[in-house]
Amino acid sequence: MNELELWGADFFYSGMGLPQEDVGMVVSGSSVGGTVVTTGKLEELRRIYPHALEKPTVSVIAPVPANAHTHLDMSTIPFKRDSYTPWIGYVVQNREQRTLESAKVGLELLGQVIPSSRPIFGDIVFNPEVMRFLLTQVEARGVAYWEVFAPNPADADRVFNETVAQMREFKALERPEKIRLGLSPHTAHTVSGELLRRLVHWAKAEGVPLQIHLGESPAEWQLFQSGTGPLAEMMERISGATLTEILGVEPSSELTPVGQLARLGVLEARPTLIHMVHVSETDVQQIARAGCVVVTCPRSNAALECGRFDWSLFARYGIEIGLGTDSVASGESLNILDELEFAKNLYGDGLSMRSLVRAAVKGSYRALGLEVPRVRRGEVAGNVRVW
Ligand SMILES: [Zn+2]
After folding, report:
1. 216 CA to middle of ligand 1, Å?
2. Do 318 and 345 reside in the same domain of the chain?
3. Tens digits of per-residue pLDDT, 178-230?
4. How many domains does the chain have?
5. Separation of 137 CA from ligand 1 center, angstroms?
6. Residues annotated as catalytic (active site), given as ranges
7. Residue 214's domain spans which residues?
8. pLDDT digits over 242-301, tens only?
9. For 318-354, how does the pLDDT look when each residue is reduced to its tens digit (9 = 90+)?
10. Residue 135 and residue 170 in contact, taking contact as beta carbons nearer than 8 Å
């Protein structure tokens, strides 16, 4: 008979309900190679399995967490603190670094976070070589979202046709149970309203998952509300179009980033929304009704002076919240456990460890359209993480 090990944790999360305290699991064989015999209250497990070798109590036992938002191909662009608009300029300056080599560095970093299990992530892909590599070579699960950036509505027809052709080529490369193909119109102000509407309707009809950056910076909020500020100026300069032309509607105090998506019918496709720092309560109600999952990247938001995601507001409306690191260039690492630790300190007593663990597991898997794994009898213990 295999030897039994008893693992106790401050927080135990099975993948269902809320994480519980003082619960543990009994594993036969080694914790990596064995299987879960049972889970339950620690005291009870000690009584039923007196011969099990008890391991030192760990902080969390849970399914392997997922990183719901990355930019792997930015892994060689050094981390930089700056406010959002100049930081975007910094990334544009370094865009020739967004290569396959850089994405491979990112994959290496992801692999180090949780050794012995394949990474689970949602990646924004800018370079076709990287997309082909992720879809054909990489042993991982999640979604690789093809990024579209085209603010001038004069380009809408051409970019729509090119994107659909490109997506068809990629789609043929998808392998079952590996990385799926998704689409990411970058944001509601860097893709013209006309193009955004058409791309999202196409993706919805094809069943292609979507991620959109939204409500990230104060400058974005200002762009929609008044058409002024550094980001508004930058968008008009680089697109050669006015903001009213880009958005297809005049900026006004009635218009928010979420409102722009609602107006274009984008929310009906239930995109996963990234950041969501700058929102009104009405926006949050709309997101809840649409059933969108949101993903927060607290370190990136802090580094780019974007503000703090209002976790309790979203939780109050029952919205599923996932966790992502964003890129190395804004989030400093691709380690989802670093992100969780940062969030724990950022919110302090305002956010329970239970909610955080649930977000890193259930919220992030749901953001990627993946089934949430469980810690339960018969499960391979290697799919269970001890933090
Ligand atoms: Zn991002």
Report:
1. 9
2. yes
3. 999 999 999 999 999 999 999 999 999 999 999 999 999 999 999 999 999 99
4. 2
5. 23
6. 216
7. 67-367
8. 999 999 999 999 999 999 999 999 999 999 999 999 999 999 999 999 999 999 999 999
9. 999 999 999 999 999 999 999 999 999 999 999 998 8
10. yes
Same-domain status, 214 and 82: yes
What is the CATH number for 28?
2.30.40.10
Residues 71 and 58 in one domain: no
- Please tell me the distance between residue 123's alpha carbon and the centre of ligand 1 in angstroms: 9
Same-domain status, 218 and 197: yes
Instruction: Give the domain CATH number at 297.
Output: 3.20.20.140
- Contact residues for 39 (Cβ-Cβ < 8 A; gap 6+): 12, 14, 23, 24, 25, 26, 375, 376, 377
Q: Helix, strand, or coil here: 292?
A: coil
How far apart are the C-alpha atoms of 114 and 338, rounded to whole Å?
12
Alpha carbon of 213 to ligand 1 centroid (Å): 6
pTM over 0.70, yes/no: yes
**What is the per-residue burial (b if ≥16 Cβ within 10 Å, else e) of 85-114?**
bebbeebeebeebbbbebbbbbbebbbebb
Please give the Cα distance from 61 to 279 (Å, whole number).
34
In this predicted structure, the answer to whether residue 33 has a pLDDT above a threshold of 80 is no
184 and 158 belong to one structural domain: yes
Tokens of 189: 């102000």
Looking at the fold, whether 57 and 72 belong to one and the same domain comes out as no
Q: Are residues 145 and 160 in the same domain?
A: yes
Helices (H), 125-229: 128-137, 156-171, 193-206, 218-226
**Helices and strands (DSSP H and E) totals, the chain:** 17, 14
Closest CA to 148 of 188, 98, 180: 188
**Ligand 1 centroid to 195 CA: how many Å?**
20
